[in-house]
Every structure is written in C-alpha cells, then in structure tokens.
Amino acid sequence: MKKFTIMLALTLAGVMPAAAEQALIGFRVLSPETALELARASLADCRKRGYQVAVAVVDRFGVAQVVLRDRFAGPHTPETARRKAWTAVSFRTDTLTMAEETQAGKPQSGARRITDALMIGGGVPVEAGGSIVGGIGISGAPGGEADDACARAGIEAIAGKIAF
To answer: Where are the domains of the chain?
Structure first.
C-alpha cells in the first residue's frame, strides 16, 4: 500500500505542473528596441554591399514591428520585405529554402497559394533559445541570396542580446 501511495503521489506531482502549463503559455518576442536594432544592422549591411533595400521585422506572430526603406529602394520593397518576414515566421523556415521546396511539382507547391506567403529568398526566422522570437525580411538587393545574406548579418549583429 505504501508503494502505491508513493507512486500515486509521484504521478500526481508530474501531472499537476503539466496541467498548469497548459492553462497559460509563456513566450518571448523581440522588444521594439531590439527589432529596430536588427533592422538597422541589416540595412547597414546591405548599404555596405551597395544595395538599396527595405527591411521589415515582424514578431513571432508575423505582426510588423519595424519597417525601414532606404532612400532609393523601390516602392514595392517595404511590402515585399514584410511578406518575406511573415512567411519565414509562419512556416518556421527561411524563404530561400521555401523557394526551393515549393516549386511546381513538389509536394509543398500549394503553399505558394497561401495569401501573403512569398517564396522568394530574403526572409529569415529569428531564433533565440530554440524558439522563434521574430522574423526579418529584406527586399531590394539583387536576388534572394543577397537579401538573405543581409538578413543574416543583422541577426548576427544582435545575437548576443537575444541569447538565453
């Protein structure tokens, strides 16, 4: 009987915290200041490479936190950057990978029909401690690979601040 009581107590001890965890969920997001720092670092990297771009940073839910457009970036670039960032957090994958994985004839090609999804390189999820805390999208560099490189340079610039 004593063994049963101990096992029951241990079982209930394991169940109670799990039930409490399911009632409320905690998460982390980029602060507005960090989102702005990320956008500025990415913009600076693109400028250093000679690119005029727009940068969008979204929170983990895809809601825009920051949008910056350099003086000569095209008028389409802010919205394109936002959609790339949204796609990266929505699919939890960078958009260079999504561009490859969603080509016509591939099993995931239907994802290209989702409203706001944009399968062009330049969108990257921002991760900290194994969780997505936001996303960044760049538009205006000569190609998705160049947009992606600027986004990753910006993430690297803030990596020390978001590590936990």
So the answer is: 30-162
pLDDT score for 5: 47
Give the integer Cα–Cα distance in Å for 15 and 27: 21
pLDDT of residue 14: 55
- Measured distance CA(99)–CA(102) in Å, rounded: 6
CA dist 95 and 144 (Å) reads 8
What pLDDT, on the 0 to 100 scale, is given for residue 4?
44
pLDDT at 18: 55
The strand pair at 64-69 and 54-59 is best described as antiparallel
For residues 151 and 135, the answer to whether their CB atoms sit within 8 Å is no
Q: Exposed, middle or buried by CB within 10 Å (0-12, 13-18, 19+), for 82?
A: buried
Residues lower than pLDDT 70 in the chain: 1-21
pTM of the model: 0.85
How far apart are the two ends of the chain, measured CA to CA in Å?
A: 45
CATH architecture of 30-162: 2-Layer Sandwich (3.30)
